[in-house]
Amino acid sequence: MAAEPAVTRGPQPPTDRPKAVTVAADRPPAQPTIVATGVYFSGTVRLELGGRYGFMIDGDRFRILGPLSPSIVALDQSLAGMTVSTAHGRLLLAIPDDRAGELLLVFTAIVGASLEKVSEAIQQAVDEAVGP
Predict the structure, then answer these.
(1) pLDDT, tens only, 83-96
(2) Among residues of the chain, what percentage have pLDDT more than 70?
(3) Where are the beta strands (DSSP E) in 44-121?
(4) Which residues on adjacent β-strands are paired with residue 36?
């Protein structure tokens, strides 16, 4: 009686279908953005009167850069609770501060976008930092 040849089988396909996996993709962090520059007119922060400063949005932080150099960070505060408004061609910022209560800053001669667009961009960043 002759032995039957051994049967070799290749890889077997899986019996269960692969399950779909949902991966929550976090929104990629926004790159730091300088939205405009303005001349410091008045306020409770010790900035150089008449100095030109940049307004940077970096995630949930608001930074004022300058004067003279964008590598100098003159102010670094959270966007949370910040109030932005305009009046008489000036950008008005009120920023809560644990130590000083509230920081008030007034800028004029805004360059980079219209005063309204700059105000809207900063307000949008405030709204996104606070969330729903």
Answers:
(1) 999 999 999 999 99
(2) 77
(3) 52-58, 61-65, 73-78, 83-87, 90-97, 101-111
(4) 55
